[in-house]
Amino acid sequence: MDRDRPTLRLQDVAEAAGVSIATASRSLSRSTGVSEEVAERVRDVARQMGYIANVHARSLAGGASRSVGLLVHEIGDPYFTEIASGVLHVGAKEGLTVQICHTGRDPQQELEQIRTLIANRVGAIIVAGSGFVDPAHQAAAKADLASYRRFGGRVAVIGRHHLSADAVLPDNRGGGRAVAQHLLDLGHRRIALVSGMRSLTTVADRLAGIEDAVTAAGIPFADLPLVEAPFTRLGGKQAAEEILAAHPDVTAVLALNDDMAIGVLSVLRDRGMAVPERMSVTGFDDVAVAGDLAPSLTTVHLPMVDMGEQALLMALKEPSARPRRRTAECHLVVRDSTAVPPA
Amino acid sequence: MDRDRPTLRLQDVAEAAGVSIATASRSLSRSTGVSEEVAERVRDVARQMGYIANVHARSLAGGASRSVGLLVHEIGDPYFTEIASGVLHVGAKEGLTVQICHTGRDPQQELEQIRTLIANRVGAIIVAGSGFVDPAHQAAAKADLASYRRFGGRVAVIGRHHLSADAVLPDNRGGGRAVAQHLLDLGHRRIALVSGMRSLTTVADRLAGIEDAVTAAGIPFADLPLVEAPFTRLGGKQAAEEILAAHPDVTAVLALNDDMAIGVLSVLRDRGMAVPERMSVTGFDDVAVAGDLAPSLTTVHLPMVDMGEQALLMALKEPSARPRRRTAECHLVVRDSTAVPPA
DNA sequence: ACAGTAACCGAAAGCGCTTACGAAAGCGCT
DNA sequence: AGCGCTTTCGTAAGCGCTTTCGGTTACTGT
Question: What sign has the CA pseudo-torsion B248, B251, B257, B262?
Answer without folding.
Answer: positive
